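Issue 218. Parser rejects a valid record. Input:
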Amino acid sequence: MPFRDHFRPPVSTRHSWEGLHSQWPAMLVQQLFPSLPDGFTAEPRVHLGPFFEIDIAGFEHDATDPNPETPEASGGIATALWAPPQPTSTIDVELGENYEYEVLVYDETRGRRLVAAIELVSIANKNLAKHRGMFVAKCATLLQQGVSVSIIDLVTVRRFNLYAELLDLIGGSDPAFSPNPPATYAIACRMRTVGTRSRLETWAYPLEPGQLLPTLPLWLTEDLAVALDLEASYEDTCRVLRIA
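Output the parser choked on:
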Protein backbone atom coordinates (compact mmCIF):
# COMPACT_ATOMS: atom_id res chain seq x y z
CA MET A 1 0.00 0.00 0.00
CA PRO A 2 1.18 3.61 -0.56
CA PHE A 3 2.25 5.80 2.33
CA ARG A 4 -0.42 7.67 4.27
CA ASP A 5 -0.53 11.26 5.46
CA HIS A 6 0.05 10.69 9.18
CA PHE A 7 -0.25 14.38 10.03
CA ARG A 8 -3.77 15.06 8.75
CA PRO A 9 -7.20 13.41 9.10
CA PRO A 10 -8.34 10.73 8.80
CA VAL A 11 -5.11 8.99 9.88
CA SER A 12 -4.07 11.65 12.42
CA THR A 13 -7.40 11.43 14.26
CA ARG A 14 -6.89 7.74 15.02
CA HIS A 15 -3.11 7.31 15.24
CA SER A 16 -0.25 9.55 16.36
CA TRP A 17 2.72 10.16 14.10
CA GLU A 18 4.94 9.59 17.17
CA GLY A 19 3.79 5.98 17.26
CA LEU A 20 4.87 5.44 13.67
CA HIS A 21 8.21 7.17 14.18
CA SER A 22 8.94 5.21 17.36
CA GLN A 23 8.05 1.81 15.88
CA TRP A 24 9.50 2.20 12.40
CA PRO A 25 13.20 2.17 13.47
CA ALA A 26 12.65 -1.20 15.15
CA MET A 27 11.02 -2.60 12.01
CA LEU A 28 13.88 -1.29 9.88
CA VAL A 29 16.37 -3.07 12.12
CA GLN A 30 14.35 -6.28 11.92
CA GLN A 31 14.33 -6.05 8.13
CA LEU A 32 18.02 -5.20 7.86
CA PHE A 33 19.51 -7.96 10.00
CA PRO A 34 19.03 -10.82 7.48
CA SER A 35 20.81 -8.68 4.85
CA LEU A 36 23.72 -7.44 6.94
CA PRO A 37 26.98 -9.35 6.38
CA ASP A 38 28.80 -10.92 9.32
CA GLY A 39 30.47 -8.27 11.45
CA PHE A 40 27.77 -5.62 10.94
CA THR A 41 24.98 -4.84 13.37
CA ALA A 42 22.12 -2.34 13.56
CA GLU A 43 20.10 -0.86 16.40
CA PRO A 44 17.21 1.61 16.73
CA ARG A 45 17.55 4.88 18.62
CA VAL A 46 14.82 7.24 19.82
CA HIS A 47 15.75 10.46 21.62
CA LEU A 48 12.83 12.70 22.61
CA GLY A 49 14.35 16.03 23.51
CA PRO A 50 16.66 17.03 26.36
CA PHE A 51 14.35 15.90 29.17
CA PHE A 52 13.87 12.28 28.14
CA GLU A 53 17.38 10.87 28.07
CA ILE A 54 20.20 10.83 30.63
CA ASP A 55 23.45 9.22 29.50
CA ILE A 56 25.50 9.73 32.68
CA ALA A 57 23.92 10.44 36.06
CA GLY A 58 25.60 11.72 39.21
CA PHE A 59 24.21 11.12 42.67
CA GLU A 60 24.70 12.77 46.06
CA HIS A 61 23.58 11.91 49.58
CA ASP A 62 20.20 13.28 50.59
CA ALA A 63 20.68 16.01 53.22
CA THR A 64 18.05 14.29 55.33
CA ASP A 65 19.95 10.98 55.44
CA PRO A 66 19.77 10.00 59.16
CA ASN A 67 23.04 8.03 58.98
CA PRO A 68 25.42 9.85 56.66
CA GLU A 69 28.72 8.06 56.30
CA THR A 70 31.71 10.36 56.69
CA PRO A 71 35.26 9.51 55.60
CA GLU A 72 36.33 9.41 59.25
CA ALA A 73 33.53 6.99 60.19
CA SER A 74 34.49 4.63 57.40
CA GLY A 75 38.16 4.67 58.25
CA GLY A 76 39.16 6.98 55.37
CA ILE A 77 41.04 10.24 55.37
CA ALA A 78 39.08 13.47 55.10
CA THR A 79 40.04 15.60 52.11
CA ALA A 80 39.20 19.21 51.36
CA LEU A 81 36.82 19.72 48.45
CA TRP A 82 37.99 22.11 45.75
CA ALA A 83 35.68 25.09 45.30
CA PRO A 84 35.77 26.30 41.68
CA PRO A 85 35.58 30.04 41.03
CA GLN A 86 32.39 31.69 39.87
CA PRO A 87 31.79 31.46 36.10
CA THR A 88 33.11 34.37 34.11
CA SER A 89 29.89 34.49 32.10
CA THR A 90 26.36 33.13 32.48
CA ILE A 91 24.08 33.07 29.42
CA ASP A 92 20.50 31.86 29.22
CA VAL A 93 20.13 29.76 26.06
CA GLU A 94 17.50 27.57 24.48
CA LEU A 95 19.02 24.73 22.46
CA GLY A 96 15.66 23.51 21.22
CA GLU A 97 14.15 20.06 21.02
CA ASN A 98 16.59 17.62 19.46
CA TYR A 99 14.14 14.84 18.62
CA GLU A 100 15.79 11.87 16.94
CA TYR A 101 14.26 8.76 15.40
CA GLU A 102 17.00 6.77 13.75
CA VAL A 103 18.71 3.48 12.99
CA LEU A 104 22.49 3.22 13.38
CA VAL A 105 24.57 0.55 11.64
CA TYR A 106 27.99 -0.44 13.02
CA ASP A 107 30.95 -2.39 11.68
CA GLU A 108 32.06 -4.51 14.62
CA THR A 109 35.17 -5.70 12.79
CA ARG A 110 36.49 -2.11 12.90
CA GLY A 111 35.98 -1.41 16.59
CA ARG A 112 32.22 -0.93 16.30
CA ARG A 113 32.65 1.92 13.86
CA LEU A 114 29.49 3.75 12.80
CA VAL A 115 29.07 3.23 9.04
CA ALA A 116 25.45 4.17 8.29
CA ALA A 117 22.64 6.22 9.80
CA ILE A 118 18.96 6.24 8.86
CA GLU A 119 17.22 9.42 10.04
CA LEU A 120 13.41 9.74 10.28
CA VAL A 121 12.45 13.42 10.17
CA SER A 122 9.96 14.62 12.81
CA ILE A 123 7.93 17.82 13.08
CA ALA A 124 10.39 19.11 15.68
CA ASN A 125 13.26 18.77 13.19
CA LYS A 126 11.43 21.10 10.76
CA ASN A 127 9.75 23.52 13.20
CA LEU A 128 12.31 26.30 13.55
CA ALA A 129 15.43 27.39 11.68
CA LYS A 130 17.65 26.38 14.62
CA HIS A 131 16.09 22.89 14.71
CA ARG A 132 16.63 22.46 10.99
CA GLY A 133 20.17 23.71 11.37
CA MET A 134 20.92 21.17 14.10
CA PHE A 135 19.57 18.31 11.98
CA VAL A 136 21.42 19.39 8.84
CA ALA A 137 24.68 19.95 10.75
CA LYS A 138 24.43 16.47 12.25
CA CYS A 139 23.97 14.89 8.81
CA ALA A 140 26.85 16.92 7.35
CA THR A 141 29.13 15.84 10.20
CA LEU A 142 28.23 12.18 9.70
CA LEU A 143 28.97 12.43 5.97
CA GLN A 144 32.28 14.14 6.67
CA GLN A 145 33.19 11.21 8.95
CA GLY A 146 32.51 8.72 6.16
CA VAL A 147 29.09 7.60 7.42
CA SER A 148 26.41 7.01 4.78
CA VAL A 149 23.19 8.87 5.61
CA SER A 150 19.59 8.16 4.67
CA ILE A 151 16.85 10.72 5.36
CA ILE A 152 13.17 9.77 5.31
CA ASP A 153 10.79 12.72 5.58
CA LEU A 154 7.05 12.04 5.60
CA VAL A 155 6.14 15.25 7.46
CA THR A 156 3.47 16.81 5.24
CA VAL A 157 2.61 19.80 7.46
CA ARG A 158 6.00 21.56 7.19
CA ARG A 159 7.21 22.60 3.73
CA PHE A 160 10.92 22.76 4.55
CA ASN A 161 13.19 20.27 2.80
CA LEU A 162 16.16 19.30 4.95
CA TYR A 163 17.89 17.52 2.07
CA ALA A 164 17.91 20.76 0.08
CA GLU A 165 19.23 22.60 3.15
CA LEU A 166 21.96 19.97 3.57
CA LEU A 167 23.03 20.47 -0.05
CA ASP A 168 23.01 24.23 0.43
CA LEU A 169 25.23 23.87 3.50
CA ILE A 170 27.88 21.88 1.64
CA GLY A 171 27.63 24.00 -1.50
CA GLY A 172 25.60 21.81 -3.86
CA SER A 173 22.15 21.40 -5.35
CA ASP A 174 19.95 18.70 -6.86
CA PRO A 175 18.10 19.75 -10.06
CA ALA A 176 15.24 17.39 -9.18
CA PHE A 177 14.70 19.28 -5.91
CA SER A 178 14.79 22.85 -7.18
CA PRO A 179 13.54 25.50 -7.35
CA ASN A 180 10.64 24.27 -5.17
CA PRO A 181 11.76 21.19 -3.20
CA PRO A 182 8.94 18.89 -2.03
CA ALA A 183 8.00 18.59 1.64
CA THR A 184 8.27 14.80 1.63
CA TYR A 185 11.07 12.70 0.19
CA ALA A 186 13.48 9.85 0.82
CA ILE A 187 17.19 10.07 0.10
CA ALA A 188 20.43 8.18 0.60
CA CYS A 189 23.81 9.84 0.36
CA ARG A 190 27.48 9.17 0.96
CA MET A 191 30.82 10.90 0.52
CA ARG A 192 33.53 9.41 -1.69
CA THR A 193 37.06 10.49 -2.40
CA VAL A 194 37.82 10.59 -6.12
CA GLY A 195 41.44 11.49 -6.71
CA THR A 196 42.00 14.53 -4.54
CA ARG A 197 38.38 15.63 -4.47
CA SER A 198 35.46 14.73 -2.21
CA ARG A 199 32.29 13.77 -4.05
CA LEU A 200 28.76 13.54 -2.63
CA GLU A 201 26.64 10.79 -4.22
CA THR A 202 22.88 10.87 -3.63
CA TRP A 203 19.87 8.75 -4.43
CA ALA A 204 16.90 11.09 -3.99
CA TYR A 205 13.17 10.47 -4.47
CA PRO A 206 10.45 13.14 -4.09
CA LEU A 207 7.34 11.63 -2.48
CA GLU A 208 3.64 12.33 -2.31
CA PRO A 209 0.99 10.65 -0.13
CA GLY A 210 -0.41 7.79 -2.11
CA GLN A 211 2.94 6.74 -3.59
CA LEU A 212 4.94 3.64 -2.80
CA LEU A 213 8.11 4.22 -0.84
CA PRO A 214 11.40 3.52 -2.65
CA THR A 215 14.22 1.12 -1.91
CA LEU A 216 17.42 2.97 -0.99
CA PRO A 217 21.03 1.76 -1.04
CA LEU A 218 22.48 1.54 2.47
CA TRP A 219 26.24 1.79 2.07
CA LEU A 220 28.31 -0.19 4.57
CA THR A 221 31.70 0.20 2.87
CA GLU A 222 33.05 1.86 -0.26
CA ASP A 223 31.98 -1.13 -2.38
CA LEU A 224 29.26 -2.82 -0.30
CA ALA A 225 25.61 -1.80 -0.01
CA VAL A 226 22.43 -3.55 1.10
CA ALA A 227 18.86 -2.75 0.10
CA LEU A 228 16.84 -0.57 2.47
CA ASP A 229 13.27 -1.50 1.52
CA LEU A 230 11.27 1.39 2.96
CA GLU A 231 7.94 0.19 1.62
CA ALA A 232 8.16 -3.23 3.26
CA SER A 233 9.30 -1.91 6.65
CA TYR A 234 6.73 0.89 6.54
CA GLU A 235 3.88 -1.51 5.83
CA ASP A 236 5.06 -3.85 8.58
CA THR A 237 5.00 -0.87 10.97
CA CYS A 238 1.48 0.13 9.92
CA ARG A 239 0.32 -3.46 10.30
CA VAL A 240 1.72 -3.76 13.83
CA LEU A 241 0.15 -0.43 14.83
CA ARG A 242 -3.11 -1.24 12.98
CA ILE A 243 -2.90 1.85 10.81
CA ALA A 244 -5.25 1.24 7.91
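Fixed in the parser; the record now loads. Confidence is low (pLDDT under 50) at residues 51-65.
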